[in-house]
Write a structure and sequence with these properties.
This protein is of the alpha+beta class. The chain has a single domain, classed as 10 Kd Chaperonin, Protein Cpn10, Chain O, CATH 2.30.33.40. Helices cover 13% and strands 27% of the residues. It is built from two helices and six strands, in the order H-E-H-E-E-E-E-E. A six-stranded antiparallel beta sheet has the order 4-5-1-2-3-6, with no helix packed on it. The longest helix has 8 residues. The chain is globular, with a radius of gyration of 15 Å. The mean pLDDT is 84.
């Protein structure tokens, strides 16, 4: 992956070291939402979410197995894995996780209509 492609995904100002992976929580598109949550609550709820997009991968990830993910992949991670970090450049919330915390690729999603 070229430097330009990596920069497209990682605008955080952070670069994972060793076996760390930087991921960004996301929610599948919902067509309607009845309750509006304050940003502070949403930030804390993101730590419970297991759906993330891989933003950057440390240089020592998966030394003894094929890569579990690449930058831009949507994956499932272990609940409460890693630590919440704020991007130093874009001020967005990310999670820094261990490479082994990625356990499944998301290959297809259904449209969600008001489901949690």
């Amino acid at each position: 992956m070229s430097h330009q492609e990596q920069t497209q995904w990682n605008s955080s100002g952070l670069s994972p070291l060793g076996r760390a992976v930087l991921v960004k929580p996301y929610e599948p598109e919902k067509k309607s939402q009845l309750i509006v949550m304050p940003d502070s609550v949403n930030e804390r709820l993101q730590m419970l979410d297991t759906r993330v997009i891989v933003v950057a991968i440390g240089p020592s990830c998966w030394p003894d197995e094929p890569p579990r993910a690449k930058v831009g992949d949507k994956v499932l991670i272990s609940k409460m894995a890693g630590t919440m970090v704020r991007g130093t450049k874009d001020d967005l919330i990310y999670r820094a996780i261990n490479d082994r915390d990625i356990f499944m690729a998301i290959v297809e999603e259904a449209d969600h209509v008001g489901h949690n």
